[in-house]
Structures are given as structure tokens and as C-alpha cells.
Amino acid sequence: MDEQPRFPLLAGLPLLAGGSWLWTGAEAGLLAFLLMLPIGGGLFASGFALLLWAGDRRITQTMALAGLLGGLGFPVLMLGLGAGSGLWLSAVAAASALAAGRVALGQTREIQGVPRPEPNLRLFASVAMDEIVLGTEQFSIGLPAGGAARRMAAEVQTALGLYRSRGWLDDPQTYHLDPPPGLEPRIEKARSGKIVYERLSFESGYAPHDDEPGRDRWLALEPPRTAHAYLLRHATGNRPWIVCTNGYRMGLAAIDLRAFGHYHADLGLNVLIPVLPLHGPRRVGRRSGDGFLGGDVLDTLHGEAQAVWDIRRMIGWLREQGAPAVGATGLSLGGYTTALLASIESGLTCVAAGIPVADLARLFWRHGPPLQLEYLAHLGVDQARVTELLSVVSPLALEPRVPFEARLIFGGTADRLVTPDHIRDLSAHWGNPKTHWYAGGHLSFRMDPRVQDAVDALLREVKLCP
Q1: pTM for this predicted structure
Q2: Mode of pairing for the β-strands spanning 195-203 and 186-192
Q3: What is the pLDDT of residues 23-56, one digit of tens each?
Q4: Is the dihedral of CA 439, 442, 447, 451 positive or negative?
Q5: pLDDT digits (tens, 9 = 90+) for 273-317
Q6: What is the DSSP pairing of strand 407-412 with strand 351-354?
Q7: Which CATH superfamily is domain 147-461 in?
Q8: Residue 227 DSSP code
Q9: Rounded distance, CA 1 to CA 117, Å?
Q10: Of 21, 64, 131, 295, whose CB has the highest number of CB atoms within 10 Å?
């Protein structure tokens, strides 16, 4: 963490950018001012807040988001205000987004056991990308309030008592039931752009335990009842499979097939991409992933339990079809699910957890709305209790079943979404296996080819691919 001045000089950049946007809008007329107000106001407000109240993470998130939108607005600005004004306004906005990355990086505390990244423009940009994502999530992350919050607090307390009495907190493995064999999925041909793939679906059959709090609410959600997956498989040869689990907000074929298609096209593997509950075609909200994080704690727990149940059913089907070997990988929330799967499912050839969440409660309390979290704590739902409750679906509470030499973890040293302590803690719990650190944020691992090289090397070492 850099030494923090009382009045950061970089606050001047969004103040200048925001003032320029607001002044130009006012000069151009009422309609132009109203159209430019969200970006100009966001930049000016975040600069003012950074100047006086530096340290609140939402400041840099707002600055980065407003800066990106302003930078992307150049074509419209040029048409409406002329090339000179458009270039100036978009440039100072984009510079403010980059400054948000620099400020956020400087305010990040050093984490013991995590390499310290070397500051440079590329790193600032990758951190700014994370801040932009978090800036958009400010408008969608919500926790139960009022009567719903009191109901959730009662559910958490009841569930803790039930889980203790059943021994699930002492031995989380016993919480998970083995899914039935004999899956007969529906498989249809499909296309996403130039990619031809297959859509697999089946009735999940998952249900929380009979007396669990939140059971009826979860079962009342219709889309998650049907499990979905995308398949990329070769027409010839009985090839090994790799199970690739999507991250938060993913689960859409157009995204997932391109995120994991490398294993099919370049390594010759068959690929199964399961869709997490509440994502993609299983979503219940407006956006993929709504309700999985930041909603009811018991919904998150049941969503993760169902995710592992569904993937285990799919792996059972692969083995019944004669799969010679099955490996697993996943990104972000999918990395969490993959790590949990590796602690419950036997016989996986290897596991590669990418930018994985390790502790969902820690994630809630870092990114959740502070006042709502404080109110939940007032009701008795604090981070410690949620951590204890979610231990039944936590990879930090179970031992991995994959051989030590077949484990890999990778993460970013400047990740703002899944902070590096998650990667460090999962690595330590797994006995410190191969752990690849890259200098960047959550979304920039694609910019470092050594990350994919490390995963590919593992797959070759365990003979999953040539």
C-alpha cells in the first residue's frame, strides 16, 4: 500500500473532467446538459469524494465507470460538439478511468504470501477494468431489507442449529448426497456464430434436505430445476473430457464457448461446460447470475450445492459413455465450484481453479452495501455466522480428492474482485500446489499467455491431452 496523502493529487483529474463535461453541457443547452450530467456528475462527484474522503472503494469504482462511459462517448460527442471538444472530453474521461486504477492499486494493502506487482500503465488499466465491473455491480448488488432481512436472519439461525445437530458443520462431506446414476439427457445441435456445439439439458432432481430453511423458496424457482450444459466434442476417438465451469454473470453460450473453446480446438479434448444455477438459461432475474451472490444466504448455499450435484450427474453420464478420463477447471465463481467439486467427486484426473473465490462470506462483506451489511449484523447475521453456515459448501472446509501433483491454482496479484487472499488461502489449504500468479486484475489473465500455458502444461503432465 502506498503512502496516502491527505488530499490526493489525482483527484484533480476527475474534477477537471467532470467540470469540463458539466460546463460544456451547460453551454450547449438544457438537453445536452441533461444527457452529459450522469457522466460529468459521476466524474466530478468521485473526484470531490476522492479529495475529501479517500478510502471508500466505491469512489474509484464510480470514477472508473464514468470514465469508461465518457471515453466510449467520443463518436457522439464529436457529432454533437465537434472533433475538438469531443476529443478533449473523451480523453479526460478515459484518463480519469486510468487514474481510478492507479488510485485503487495504491490503496491496496500488501497481502502476505502474494507477490507485489510492479506498477505500470498496463497494470493500472487492468485494475481499472475491475473497478468498472464493480462500478456496474453497485446498481445490482442488493441484500434483503425490512421483513425479508428479518426472515433471512431467522433462517440463518435456524439453519446453523440444524446443521450443528446433524454434524454437517463438523463434516461438510456428509451434507452432500450422491446423485443417482443413469442420466438420460436431451441433446440438441446448436450454433453460436461459427461455433457448432450441442446443448445438453435434463431435470436436475436436486432438492435441499427436507427440513432445511429456504427449501420451499428454492424449489419454487422454476428455471434452476432444469440443468443445462454446452458440449464441444470430437466426432472421432474416445477422448478425455474437461469440465469447464462458468464464472459469475457468465453461463451464456456466446461467452462460455469462447472462454473454454481452446481446450477443444487446440488441445483436442472433449469439453463439457455446465451452466451454474441462476445463470444463462437457468436465470430468474434480469441478468445472468442475479440472486446467486448478494441475495439470500440460503439461496446461495443451495445454488452451490445444486451446482455440484448437477456437475456430478454430468460426470457420471460422461463415464457411462466411456470417458477415459475427466479433468475440471473453472473461472472465478466457477473456480470456487470446481474447487468444491474436487473435494466431493472422486476420480478426477486433475483440477485447475482459475481466479477462484475461496470464501463466499468474505466476498459478500467486501463488496456488499455497507449499511445493509451493518443492518444484517444488527439482526445477528454477521460475517462469522455466514462463514460457518456456508462451510458445508466451502472448499476451505473440505479436503481435495485430486492428487497433489494434479492440482493448479492461478490468480492475479492486483485482483479487485476476488482479492489475492482468496487464492493464497485456497493454495495453502491445498498444501501449496502449483500456484501461478500473474500481474493483473480479475479480467486480465487472458492478456498473459503464461496463464493458459500453465494450465495446458498441467493437462499434459497428467496425460489428459498429448
Answers
A1: 0.93
A2: antiparallel
A3: 999 998 899 899 999 999 999 999 999 988 877 8
A4: positive
A5: 999 999 999 999 888 888 888 778 999 999 999 999 999 999 999
A6: parallel
A7: Alpha/Beta hydrolase fold, catalytic domain (3.40.50.1820)
A8: E
A9: 11
A10: 64
